[in-house]
Amino acid sequence: MTLAGKTILMSGGSRGIGLAIALRAARDGANVVLLAKTDTPHPKLEGTVHTAAEQIRAAGGRALPIVGDVRNDDDIAEAVLTAQGEFGGIDIVVNNASVIDLSGSLELAGKKYDLMQDVNVRGTFMLSRAAVPMLRDAENPHILSLSPPLNLSPRWLGAHTGYTLAKYGMTMATLGLAAEFADAGIAANTLWPRTTIATAAVRFALGGERMMRASRTPEVYADAAHAVLTTPSRERTGQTLIVEDVLEAAGVTDLSGYAAVPGTPDDALFPDIFLD
């Protein structure tokens, strides 16, 4: 299966996991529409929506960078209409944009709580909803949200309540859309890794270089996402999928090549939150 000629609308995607998913699709010859805020370089973080578009084109895909905010309904509408005008429709929505803050409830600033809810939960719902009319007409329509399964263990509910609510909100919105639009054949699933992924968020929010060395590369997420998005939409929907399980089902059992530091054994990798 291939994503050749498919049009993907992604929130974020200037760097990290989102960019890796976009580049994997680009190698098939996909069209990628990026709705992202990063118009100018960040002093600490590499990549803008424009440099991401350049990499997508270099990888063999077509790119349409749109500077906008997934919290803004007008920006969402512009992205959807521009994608339709440029590529004739939308086949896939990837809800990649996400804000992380692992502060405890007493330390978490109200504005940061609101930001996580607006980007993670509302952004996922509004972007997906806006694309549904075009997804209905797609041959193999998918919504994929990068969010975890609903683990109600007090270990994670109590560790960072604000962030947990926001990520679980992404998942619940996606599962709701899966049920609501099942008859239309629109698949809606979530995808989450069993280990941490070597991204800027892990470096700055979870533990710096030590954590980066104990993580897998974003390509492990990208290859799993590709496997999900090339599956017939009526065969897999309403599921909270795990990256490694998806790859194993696709016949990929040796994940050593995804270690951020080559040669790192699996038992030395840092387990991701929400799964234990």
Summarize the structure.
This protein has helices at 16-28, 49-58, 73-87, 110-135, 154-157, 161-180, 200-213, 218-229, 243-249; strands at 7-11, 31-36, 62-67, 92-95, 142-145, 187-192, 240-242. With 276 residues, the chain is α/β, with parallel strands linked by helices. The radius of gyration is 17 Å and the shape is globular.
Radius of gyration, taken over Cα atoms and rounded to an integer in Å = 17 Å
Q: List SSEs in N-to-C order.
A: EHEHEHEHEHHEHHEH
Shape: globular
The helix content is 40-55%
Structural class: alpha/beta
Furnish the topology, listing elements before pairings:
Blueprint: E1 7-11, H1 16-28, E2 31-36, H2 49-58, E3 62-67, H3 73-87, E4 92-95, H4 110-135, E5 142-145, H5 154-157, H6 161-180, E6 187-192, H7 200-213, H8 218-229, E7 240-242, H9 243-249
Parallel strand pairs: 1-2, 1-4, 2-3, 4-5, 5-6, 6-7
Description:
The protein is of the alpha/beta class and 276 residues long. The chain has nine helices and seven strands. The chain has helices at residues 16-28, 49-58, 73-87, 110-135, 154-157, 161-180, 200-213, 218-229, 243-249; strands at 7-11, 31-36, 62-67, 92-95, 142-145, 187-192, 240-242. Strands 3-2-1-4-5-6-7 form a seven-stranded parallel beta sheet, with helices on both faces. The protein is globular. The model has no long low-confidence stretch (mean pLDDT 94).
Keywords for this entry:
single chain; 276 residues; alpha/beta; 7-stranded parallel sheet; 12% strand
